[in-house]
Design brief:
Elements lengths: L1 H20 L17 H12 L1 E3 L19 E3 L6 E5 L23 E2 L13 E3 L24 E3 L6 E3 L12 E3 L8 E3 L14 E3 L11 H5 L7 E3 L22 E3 L22 E3 L21 E3 L18
Parallel strand pairs: 3-5, 5-6, 6-8, 7-9, 8-10, 10-11, 11-12, 12-13, 13-14
Antiparallel strand pairs: 1-4, 2-3
Bound molecules: 2-acetamido-2-deoxy-beta-D-glucopyranose (NAG) (7 copies).
One 2-acetamido-2-deoxy-beta-D-glucopyranose (NAG) binds next to loops.
């Protein structure tokens, strides 16, 4: 009886434990290696803190004392003690008078620069600086980020950068999540060549909403060379067309595709995406697509959400097989 209770308690604590330790801003502080953070990594974090010029939200006030693994937004490996995660997402983004995000207009954001000193965090796997005003002096994505070769997750979404998206990000060969999205708006970021993305062989999530990709003709072919992709958000990218033909679709895991607000202006049926029968979510809104639905729509049996608003469709759709829609 007593032994059963003990076992039960052990099982319960094992299953509950991760929920307390993996919380977004909770420090992970149970290293098997003896505790305390690496002094070099601590110095690096303090030097990053120096690059933050305004901090009304006091997010970084906990950044003092010896053990940087206890600082807010910092997580260390429980095995090696190295800093592996930096989660400094701003959860309280300000809105402008039109109700749009105004990342640099609110007091809760971090202001300043993404200090190049971060490169010293060699073990960093996860970096989320989203929704902060970390524009530095030239307002561009620092190409040095391409040297943080251990990153699996990089979220810079909402930071209103301008200029070219650095192809150096293609050096992040372990990356699984890349979010540069500007959430529902056009931005002053652009790229004229996205072939560097094909070097990201493990990429599951690609968010480039708002990045001007005008003139890039072969974007579907490029994405088709990254088979692990599950989510693609290329809304507001000024893409010219989506009627490229793909001989073979490698994107067999694709679940979510957002191509809204691109103004393709060609026939709906000629879209390459109808081959992606694994899709659960397809947003084609605001694209001036015209004509009939292709028969292939009937094979998209996993589809739960289909947005075709603001296009010129001349016929009714047959949704007979689409039992999840
Ligand atoms: C330690 O980290 C590993 C990998 O991140 C994880 O699987 C494991 O559950 C962690 N152990 C504890 C006690 O948190
Ligand atoms: C990136 O951050 C934004 C805003 O903080 C969030 O909405 C989005 O889901 C994140 N992206 C990923 C891939 O987690
Ligand atoms: C990173 O990528 C850029 C452009 O793709 C390249 O010129 C550079 O040599 C790469 N740097 C490293 C350290 O691999
Ligand atoms: C988008 O980029 C193209 C060329 O890359 C440029 O001609 C065009 O002006 C840009 N559009 C906007 C709205 O910035
Ligand atoms: C994806 O499919 C194309 C054919 O459309 C093929 O040439 C290419 O090698 C495939 N790429 C990968 C990474 O599987
Ligand atoms: C694709 O659509 C564009 C218009 O966006 C059109 O100019 C072009 O001829 C179309 N190409 C094919 C192969 O249908
Ligand atoms: C739908 O799928 C079936 C079975 O895989 C296939 O025979 C048929 O050709 C597909 N229809 C279209 C329009 O691709």
């Amino acid at each position: 009886m007593c032994r059963t209770t003990n076992l039960l308690l052990t099982l319960i604590s094992i299953s509950i434990f991760p929920f307390f330790t993996n919380g977004a801003l909770q420090p992970q502080h149970q290293h098997a290696h003896g505790g305390g953070c690496n002094p070099d990594e601590r110095a690096t974090l303090l030097s990053f803190k120096k690059g933050i010029t305004s901090n009304d939200a006091n997010i970084l006030t906990s950044w003092q004392g010896q053990d940087c693994c206890r600082w807010r937004g910092v997580s260390c490996s429980n095995r090696t003690g190295h800093v592996i995660k930096l989660h400094l997402r701003n959860p309280n983004v300000a809105l402008d008078t039109y109700g749009e995000y105004d990342v640099c207009g609110g007091a809760s954001a971090l202001f300043g620069e993404i200090s190049p000193s971060l490169l010293s965090l060699k073990h960093l796997e996860h970096m989320d600086l989203s929704m902060n005003c970390l524009l530095g002096t030239n307002s561009q994505i620092p190409h040095l980020l391409g040297s943080m070769g251990n990153l699996r997750y990089l979220n810079l979404s909402g930071i209103p950068f301008t200029g070219r998206v650095p192809p150096h990000l293609g050096n992040l060969s372990k990356l699984q999540y890349l979010d540069l999205g500007q959430d529902g708006d056009y931005s002053d970021m652009y790229s004229t060549d996205i072939t560097w993305l094909t070097k990201l062989a493990f990429l599951k999530f690609l968010g480039m909403s708002g990045v001007n990709l005008s003139g890039i003709v072969d974007w579907p072919q490029t994405l088709n060379m990254i088979p692990p992709l599950r989510v693609i958000d290329l809304s507001y990218c000024l893409l010219d067309s989506a009627n490229q033909s793909l001989a073979h679709l490698n994107l067999t895991k694709l679940e979510k595709l957002d191509l809204s607000y691109n103004d393709f202006e060609h026939s709906l049926a000629s879209g390459w995406f109808w081959k992606a029968t694994s899709l659960k979510y397809l947003d084609l809104g605001q694209n001036s697509l015209f004509g009939q639905f292709p028969d292939m729509l009937g094979n998209m049996t996993y589809l739960q959400v289909l947005d075709i608003s603001q296009n010129w469709n001349g016929d009714m759709m047959m949704t007979g097989n689409l039992k999840n829609l």
